[in-house]
């Protein structure tokens, strides 16, 4: 019997209140409004045509331009049979940027990029829409850039997700691509 925690269980560890309830209104495949409610943190991220907000205060991505000052988070968990890709991504983040954090909740991480608390987030994994759509919309409404692993605008059909403040997106994208190079994709 497999007693390892499963992905959803890891997100709800006692003492680590990093989880969210997310909703997004989508029209013709594009988000038009979104909310990420983080009850344990008492935070609510919202986004609409007028911008992105945290607890009612307008959000903007960070204005940092030097990757050595960036804090970047890997997001969307890699399965056990893909841990070499995770390790390659972490190595690329550590080698390129000033700091790295991992939170275990993609929607909160995307909210942190939108708020400027993080400068970027990366994964080469195909993310689920319920883990990403609301947060991606918030990043875009806060002035950030969100692409797939190839640098094309991110959609729910994309492989990989790379979000940043847009100032050094190519460097954040290179970190995401490190996993691809490692596994020969």
What does this protein structure show overall?
- The protein is an alpha+beta fold and 185 residues long.
- The protein has a single domain, classed as D-Maltodextrin-Binding Protein, domain 2 (3-Layer(aba) Sandwich).
- Strands 1-2-3-4-5 form a five-stranded antiparallel sheet, covered by helices on one side. A five-stranded mixed sheet has the order 7-6-8-10-9, sandwiched between helices.
- β4 and β5 form a beta hairpin.
- α2 runs antiparallel to α5 and α3 packs parallel to α4.
Largest sheet, spatial ordering of strands: 1-2-3-4-5
CATH fold-type name? D-Maltodextrin-Binding Protein, domain 2
Question: Sheet with the most strands?
Answer: 5 strands, antiparallel
Q: In angstroms, what is the radius of gyration?
A: 15 Å
- The domain tally reads 1
Helix percent band: 25-40%
Output the helix-strand order.
Answer: HEEEEEEHEHEHEEH
| Helix-strand category | alpha+beta
- Beta-strand content estimate: 15-25%
What is the annotated CATH architecture?
A: 3-Layer(aba) Sandwich
* Average pLDDT, all residues: 90
Tell me, what's the shape? globular
Which regions are unreliable across 5 or more consecutive residues at pLDDT < 50?
1-10
Number of helices: 5
What's the CATH C level? Answer: Alpha Beta
Number of strands: 10
Distance between the termini: 32 Å
Subunit arrangement of the protein: single chain
